[in-house]
Write a structure and sequence with these properties.
alpha+beta; 18 helices; 18 strands; 36% helix; Aminopep_P_N; manganese ion binding; metal-binding; hydrolase; manganese
Length: 480
């Protein structure tokens, strides 16, 4: 025997079986675990709100079995998955964020009988306890069981396997997009009408939802302050846009579920790029810094706020001129948010201001009226996106609603929306004078329609250029 062979254990070279196939291992790992009772981590009031939401959907679509699902986390690479985030309509209907869960609202005379089907957690004694790295409690920790979920949500909860035995009963049911895989297996129909109805119902927020959005906005406002306070370090140490992006994302994860969408931090020539989520540039201390950020609350309701701040604490003359025009358009849009006003009025009001301002600067090749006409739209070269959108569980909420419900309807109390005009002067746009190239400014507020008018939920962040400068200087630690 060589010296090397002497060091090898006696089982070296043996083909190992999977642990689940080793009786001694499975017997030993199954026993002597303390029973850790875990309750679902629900925001207060979530279950009651979801119950009301189900009642509203039941009244809107009687006589048809309805199906929604939480969904599954997609694979990121090889055996690693993205973090799971439950489908928004499913959460609206259940308050539950369990991966793989399915809600079936069984049609019964006079309404619906809702049943929530959940995959039971892998407890000691289950092979998945040690073999499933995504859901086994040995890997991810203790989780609530089906009885705990039923008690917390006030709804009948059954194991997911029980639904498989009822696939035949799902023929002819309407399924949301989130349940498309189940629909294909069970013969249900992925229904555009169900999706549009859910979007229409979700447009008007109830008191509980508004509370969640207030919390998300308040956490976002604090996140803006945290980010701007880090600008000097990002400049001095060359940490750049990504440091500021990471600062907000850490804040969102600490004070909510996380960022509600990919955080945008654009310095200088990156500010006009509408979805600048790469955030791999430096922070130019002389440039305007566009910050588009939103905290998603643990209930999954999200804020969506944008401010453009001077990294130095003071705008240049050109930056301030652009900011002033955007502010004027922003105020014109906000002025149109009140009950009874058609949804698109705020969009047209802001666009008129933008078109007039660009014309006054000599940037339009046509008159203001020609630009604003459906056959013109030349001003949109510098503002290609819309002026706002509904806000809620999704940052672009209720997107599956019929056009007449979304764009053609009058505003009513409980609607929450954004107003976000901007001007985006790209650094390589040769229609612009040199002093305007590379300036991007957006102002975005989250607005609640009230009985009396509207309330700007994000009003703690200023919008007037002078006030923005003063606020920025305060976060930077500068004295006026």
């Amino acid at each position: 025997m060589t010296g090397t062979d002497a060091l090898r254990p006696p089982y070296a070279g043996t083909r190992y079986p999977r642990l689940g196939q080793v009786p001694a291992f499975t017997a030993f790992i199954a026993r002597d675990w303390a029973d850790v009772r875990t309750a679902p981590d629900l925001p207060p009031g979530a279950a009651a709100a979801a119950s009301v939401h189900r009642e509203r959907l039941s009244a809107a679509l009687p006589g048809r079995t309805l199906v929604a699902a939480a969904g599954h986390a997609p694979v990121r690479n090889d055996d690693a998955h993205y973090g799971f985030r439950a489908d928004s309509s499913f959460v609206w209907l259940t308050g539950c964020q369990v991966e793989g869960a399915v809600l079936v609202m069984w049609a019964v005379p006079g309404g619906h009988d809702p049943v929530l089907y959940l995959p039971p957690p892998f407890r000691p004694g289950d092979t998945g306890f040690f073999a499933d790295a995504n859901h086994g409690e040995l890997w991810v920790g203790p989780s609530a069981g089906l009885p705990e979920w039923g008690e917390a949500l006030g709804v009948v909860v059954e194991p997911l396997d029980a639904l498989a035995a009822r696939h035949g009963d799902l023929r002819g049911a309407w399924a949301a997009r989130s349940a498309s895989t189940l629909a294909a297996t069970a013969g249900a129909e992925v229904s555009a009408e169900l999706e549009s109805t859910l979007s229409r119902l979700r447009m008007v927020k109830d008191a509980w939802e508004i509370t969640q959005l207030r919390e998300a906005v308040d956490a976002t406002v604090a996140g803006f302050a945290a980010v701007v306070a880090e600008v000097p370090r990002a400049v001095a140490e060359g940490l750049g846009e990504r440091w500021l992006q990471g600062t907000f994302d850490r804040h969102a994860r600490t004070f909510g579920n996380g960022p509600g969408y990919s955080t945008i931090v654009g310095s200088g020539a990156h500010a006009p790029i509408l979805h600048w989520v790469r955030c791999d540039g430096d922070i130019d201390p002389d440039a305007a810094l566009l910050l588009d950020m939103g905290v998603e609350a643990r209930s999954l309701y999200t804020a969506d706020v944008t401010r453009t701040v001077p990294a130095s604490g003071r705008f240049s003359a050109a930056q301030r001129e652009v900011h002033d025009l955007v502010e004027k358009a922003h105020r014109a849009g906000l002025d149109r948010i009140r009950p009874g006003v058609e949804y698109l009025d705020f969009h047209f009001a802001a666009m008129e201001v933008v078109a007039q301002g660009l014309h006054d600067w000599g940037l339009l090749p046509v008159s203001v009226d020609e630009a604003l006409s459906p056959a013109g739209q030349q001003h949109r070269r510098y503002l290609a996106c819309g002026i706002g959108h509904h806000l809620g569980l999704d940052v672009h909420d209720c997107s599956q609603a019929h056009y007449e419900d979304y764009m053609g309807a009058a505003l009513e109390p409980g609607v929450v929306m954004t107003v976000e005009p901007g001007l985006y002067f790209h650094a390589h746009d040769l229609t612009l004078p040199p002093e305007l190239r590379g300036i991007g400014v957006r102002l975005e507020d989250d607005v609640l329609v009230t009985d009396a008018g509207s309330e700007v939920l994000s009003a703690a962040l200023p919008i007037a250029a002078g006030e923005v400068e003063a606020w920025t200087q305060a976060q930077l630690g500068q004295r006026g």
